[in-house]
Amino acid sequence: xxxxxxxxxxxxxxxxxxxxxxxxxxxxxxxxxxxxxxxxxxxxxxxxxxxxxxxxxxxxxxxxxxxxxxxxxxxxxxxxxxxxxxxxxxx
Length: 91
Fold this sequence. Notes:
Layout: H1 3-24, H2 32-47, H3 51-89
């Protein structure tokens, strides 16, 4: 994979994560196993790049990582809200 192809793949993954956050509002979740495989593939491709090209991929890759962290935080918030609602209903 070329540097540009990797950056395009990372941007596509970021779009999927953003869409996944919207889907959470509808009670749907991303298949994180499939996401993990795609992220692993992108990381493996980055490892094969020249140091110069790899450095250009760093920023998009960090942005994807931040998106994934935000997605995980959002899942935690929803989970906490649901558990809080379940606890209140059990009173």
